Amino acid sequence: MKVLALDVGMKRIGVAVSDELKWTAQGVETIHVKGDSPEESFGRIAELIKEHNASEIVVGLPKNMNGTIGPRGEQCQQFARQLEENLGIPVHMYDERLTTQAAERTLIEADMSRKKRKKVVDKMAAVMILQGYLDKTQS
């Protein structure tokens, strides 16, 4: 079974999925949130779980640099709890500090335009979250 990872934002949610052996992460898509709440994306996430045969989800937890959890982190924790209740599969949190910035830097180094970066940075951040989670659980 595979693992699905989410980089949850208020407007976009980056999605990545592992391979069957849970060794590598690949970007899947960016879900665009049209309303005020990321929870409106649960239907699409459920479709992706079924499509990719995922048995668990990892949600990035944006901690402060000192390790504390601020308002944004609390929103992600609430999102994860609601996701687990609604979809009935395990949802894990993974410290995502600086993943979006690292993804942005990688795309800049690849000489990608700002417009193109905006379309893929969340998906790439989800890949970084998932790969970190997979590396941690494999060791």
TrEMBL record:
Source organism's superkingdom? Bacteria
Q: Which GO terms describe its biological process?
A: rRNA 5'-end processing
Ranges of residues in domain YqgF/RNase H-like:
1-103
Pfam families hit by this protein: RuvX
Q: Name one GO molecular function term.
A: nuclease activity
Q: What is its EC number?
A: 3.1.-.-
Q: What class of enzyme is it?
A: hydrolase
Q: What main location does UniProt list? A: cytoplasm
Q: Does the keyword Nuclease apply?
A: yes
Q: CDD domains of this UniProt entry? A: YqgF (cd16964)
Q: What InterPro entries does the database record attribute to this sequence?
A: RNaseH-like_sf, YqgF, YqgF/RNaseH-like_dom, YqgF/RNaseH-like_dom_sf
Is Hydrolase among this UniProt entry's keywords? yes
What GO cellular component is one of the record's annotations?
cytosol
The record's SMART domains line, in alphabetical order, gives: YqgFc
- Keywords recorded for this protein, A-Z: Cytoplasm, Hydrolase, Nuclease, Ribosome biogenesis
Q: From the Swiss-Prot or TrEMBL record, state where the protein is found.
A: Cytoplasm
Family, similarity comment: Belongs to the YqgF HJR family.
Its biological purpose is as follows: Could be a nuclease involved in processing of the 5'-end of pre-16S rRNA.
Q: This chain belongs to which protein, by name?
A: Putative pre-16S rRNA nuclease
This protein's species is Alteribacillus persepolensis
